[in-house]
Amino acid sequence: MSRPTSLTPPPEAVVPQPHPDAPSPGTELGEHYSDCFGCGEAAPGGLRLRTRAGEGVSVDAEFTVTAQHQGAPGLAHGGLLTCAFDEALGAIGYMLHTTAVTGHLETDFRRPVPVGSTLYIHAWCEAVAGRKIYSRAVGRLDAADGPIAVEAAALFVSVGLEHFVDNGRAEEVRRVLDNPDLIKSGRAFEVNP
Ligand SMILES: CCCCCCCCCCCC(=O)SCCNC(=O)CCNC(=O)[C@H](O)C(C)(C)COP(=O)(O)OP(=O)(O)OC[C@H]1O[C@@H](n2cnc3c(N)ncnc32)[C@H](O)[C@@H]1OP(=O)(O)O
Questions:
Q1: N or C: which end of the chain has fewer CB within 10 A?
Q2: Residues whose beta carbon lies within 6 Å of some atom of ligand 1
Q3: Is residue 164 part of a domain?
Q4: Structure pTM?
């Protein structure tokens, strides 16, 4: 049976506060996993997105579009823009002190994003209902107050360590368990509080 894919928080959802141990605004969040395509330094051709803690349950990131990110000539590929938003929205987990995976993600492309431009991404959590985290993000062109180029809305679902251990390919899971430094933040595989 297929699941509902609504991005509207249910009536019992609450507006969350940052976890008491959440990083303070402006703190660089770093890569969560060295081979992550969205943020990992070791991922070939990856986006290497850097996120910072924002006010409340929010994060900020800048994504500069390079020639490697093209879809049409001189323009960013929409799928890669979505990846950047997935990454930024996922980093909201730092503010809630939970590890969450994307359940549903919608992206609205409002303006073309040229190669060489920088998207200023602001992502925030609207509501939490149990394991479900409802978040939104906006990407502005070339300045924090620039025109909106991309908007996204997502449902992330909190998961525990077993999600990764049980589902990841054994080779990479073993490599990480043998060398926890590969999870730079020490957060991505952390069991929920
Ligand atoms: C901290 C460091 C960070 C570090 C930063 C991390 C950044 C990561 C950025 C990248 C993030 C990714 O790309 S993650 C990779 C892409 N995503 C995935 O691979 C996830 C694949 N999907 C799954 O594994 C699963 O479907 C789950 C875990 C999402 C849910 O399965 P489950 O655990 O069995 O739970 P389940 O009962 O089905 O669902 C829980 C609740 O969520 C609802 N739900 C589940 N999926 C959906 C959906 N698509 N649309 C609506 N609702 C949904 C269910 O109805 C239910 O509601 P109710 O009955 O409770 O009301």
A1: N
A2: 3-6, 32, 38, 86-87, 90-91, 93-94, 99, 101-104, 130-132, 155, 157, 159, 185, 187-188
A3: no
A4: 0.94
Instruction: Provide the residue range defining the domain that includes 135.
Output: 50-158
pLDDT tens digit string along 119-132? Answer: 999 999 999 999 99
Residue to probe by mutation, ligand 1, list 101, 133, 161, 172, most atoms within 8 Å of CB: 101
Residue 77 lies in a domain: yes
Cα torsion through 89, 103, 65, 45, rounded to 10: 110
Q: Give the pLDDT confidence of 130-169 residue by residue, as tens digits.
A: 999 999 999 999 999 999 999 999 999 999 989 999 999 9
Locate 11 and state its tokens.
């009536």
**HSE-up of residue 14 (Cα within 13 Å, Cβ side):** 6
Number of domains the chain contains: 1
- Residue for token pair 């957060």: 187
Query: Which helix (H) or strand (E) is 125 found in, with range?
Result: strand 118-129
CA 101 to ligand 1 centroid distance, Å: 5
Residue 130: which CATH number? Answer: 3.10.129.10
- According to DSSP, the residues that pair with 61 across neighbouring strands are 51, 121
Whether 14 maps to a domain, the answer reads no
